[in-house]
Amino acid sequence: MASSPYDFTVYRGTFIQLSRNPPAGQKPVLLRNTGALWVSAADGRIADFDWQAIDDNAFRQLMEKQGWVDVDSQVNGHSAQQTKVKIVTASDDLNEFFFPGFIDTHIHAPQYPNAGLFGSSTLLDWLETYTFPVESGFGSQSDHKNGKFSPRDAPLLAQRVYDQVVARTLSHGTTCASYFATVHVPATNALAALCYTRGQRAFIGRVCMDNPDFCPTYYKDLSAADSLSATKSTIEYIHTLDPKGSLIKPIVTPRFVPTCSRPALEDLGKLAASYSPPLHIQTHISENKNEVALVKELFPECASYAAVYDEYKLLTPRTILAHAVHLTQDERALVRQRDAKISHCPASNSALGSGIAPVRAYIDEGVTVGLGTDVSGGYSPSILEAARQACLASRLLGHTADFQAETCTNSHPKSEGREKLSIEESLYLATRGGAAVVDMADDIGGFEQGMIWDTQLIQLGGVKEADRSPLDSALESSRGTGQSLVQPGPIGNVDLFGKETWEERIQKWVWNGDDRDVKSVWVGGKLVHSRG
Amino acid sequence: MASSPYDFTVYRGTFIQLSRNPPAGQKPVLLRNTGALWVSAADGRIADFDWQAIDDNAFRQLMEKQGWVDVDSQVNGHSAQQTKVKIVTASDDLNEFFFPGFIDTHIHAPQYPNAGLFGSSTLLDWLETYTFPVESGFGSQSDHKNGKFSPRDAPLLAQRVYDQVVARTLSHGTTCASYFATVHVPATNALAALCYTRGQRAFIGRVCMDNPDFCPTYYKDLSAADSLSATKSTIEYIHTLDPKGSLIKPIVTPRFVPTCSRPALEDLGKLAASYSPPLHIQTHISENKNEVALVKELFPECASYAAVYDEYKLLTPRTILAHAVHLTQDERALVRQRDAKISHCPASNSALGSGIAPVRAYIDEGVTVGLGTDVSGGYSPSILEAARQACLASRLLGHTADFQAETCTNSHPKSEGREKLSIEESLYLATRGGAAVVDMADDIGGFEQGMIWDTQLIQLGGVKEADRSPLDSALESSRGTGQSLVQPGPIGNVDLFGKETWEERIQKWVWNGDDRDVKSVWVGGKLVHSRG
Fold first, then answer.
1. What pLDDT score was predicted for residue A75?
2. CB-based contacts of A363: which residues, under 8 Å, 6+ apart?
């Protein structure tokens, strides 16, 4: 890596994050600090911060005290002893603030061309109609048997789609994603290479699916042995690409129980456990009631869906279980006991009519939960959209038959609305929760000293001033010309009128913000996206 | 009105709309035509179209046959006999198409500063905490008693908010809106004036709320007589502003049953009926179960919530009932019998946890339904977002206890998913349905000859081409600079890869489109918004 022309990047302005590990039974809160925070160019981690440096004068004192010199200043003749810093300032006038990057704990990169295409399907027919056909185009089933491993062996379309997925998710502030790819080794490796090149933190999973009874003949692993050897190929590629795993890591990815044979599940569980630390694992669980019934039929010897994964050592503290809409009480206890993590994908669960996961109950029970877009069961690559949908779905949860059956007993006649996720909770899931789901809670998701600078700079735009009646100005400039008077500057749909508290500005961002509000994105201290 | 420098505007390209009045039991379909359609400058209505003029050659023939001359062409010396036309072309390469303007059948303009602010509240506490305080700032309770009627008597903040609401909704393609204002006459008149100035078709309702038992002392009509006289003031103002009602119409607006006394309800029903044709009416109904219980308590003499409105002659073919989440079978029959219309507000109903309206059942029963944003119970001013939320909510409907209790009887063990709204149905509600709700089904919502040109030009953007591996280009241009390679041109989040059918492009628009895709908007043939 080329050495940096400066030692630290100093970020000035407003920093907003979620409180870490709220005490049991308490909800997370938004924390806001203003001042300066600096990130070491050497390791991309937060070196320190100073919440006293709230104005230019205090900041000058900080510069002097630290012996810093601004590399962009016009002063000549820095002394060699001085520490060079790059300064990045968030504008108060434009309502800019630094916020932890979003973590997408469940996204299917090859399905991105299908984003928004699902008709009125539900999980099992959706897989057959939409998903398997698009995924099958990312290579040949026997790629790795034919000695094809290189990203450049992937079809150009696959490379192009993956490139766009990474670019799009970065532009929405996703600094870390746990990706499902396809069964194809070259394309999976291409996804890893593109994440590495663009600088997005990623877990890359080659999808395992070998059960001929459930996988289509045109798109599957050729055997259980094939599931294992192809998975190993991709792990090897990633370990060569990023030997320290500082950005890209492999993740063992049995698609879900119905697509995997017993030998494949067994091999994959052993494979993950054979590493130290054990490899990450991701799969799906209990998304849809028909799927749950199918698993019961396929694995009659196991007590539950979760028990199948547990039987094959796939239910670990580094396992991400996507969906978990319809877990039984026993399964919830088992997931908690194994410390497996849950990726909540509300946009997908609503879009495919899967149901509403009782997220608040999971959190209260001590299960770790993050958010996933689940592209393209989910239609949007945005975790902000996932946060919105998590709030919305939770507000409908109390109307569902399952929830009422479970909670409205004689002893608990009413849930009293505790199931509703607040903005703070949704943003917690999108950052701190996601960090814990990918087992990086000490590294990302917040602004503690020593954490990695995976951050987005959000810009809501200025407050709209009007010092004269729009009855005058509208008449002059608008009528007949069709020129819009909507003047959001370079920004999007968040309209501020000036009376909003800072917490209310965050709420407005969550409900009406989009990628236009994401001005810059850093991963590991490196700038990886800036709005053009 | 200044006379136009041309006789017709000729629109060329692709036109997409929903089929009109699908036969009973059948769902609407998307219709696509390419060619030319022309709108008379004299009345803003569609004069005719030619779906044969699909290329430049055929279009030239059409020009000749019609004796048209392009006002923008460089040819000198048009003869006086020739018909001058202005040509507007939708680009195929950029996936542009004309689509009927959206109709927002329920929006509270003064609540716009609260868009996104609702916490975890539900209807009745939300009104007290968020809504009444913001609405009360739009004037003084005794404005019209003090002889204040002029829009310029409204507070500057009120004018500014209203101006932004109109601009924002236009920028999202809303060509027609049915607005709730506040109790204040000057501000309500200002909303009418601003809609007129900006050229948005609008129904303007001064809100009536005189029941001291439910309205806050600081924000209410002073009496039932006051409800009536203030309403009359605004009607008079609007009839002066737009005597023919070609753009702006008044709408009688009792807020909802709990805020209105019996005398006020009676007066307002009579007032609406005293006009020929009768005035439009809008109100709320059965949004929330606590509200339904409250109405039962307040009006024990009436059989139901709907029966209260019926009792006071407020349930008419020109009545818009917002929400209708929890109607009983008897109420549904009564609404159908009176031919009253329903404004479905799914974003709001999810956000406030009100529940899910069984829209498909209403439609099957023959009730007319349109979409509303319900800003700021709804967080978004976009009807496209309302269409999305209508789809999403309908996919969760089958999980609700109420739906299961009603439909999963022995004779109908399963709903078989009929309750799910398709993209086509949601877009139908957003255009044709909304047109019928505001009693303008013959005038707006589609492209039939004689209809008014209330239209948006949608631009999805071009298909992204990649003729070389992004593994090369990403490396060159992106790494280290932070410059994004996401290149949506001037457009938003809709990514096309080239294999999508035209129907799939529409689906992608609905699920990931936003105001960036709205290139131009016309109302009554006039350009009222164009993206800067």
1. 66
2. A369, A425
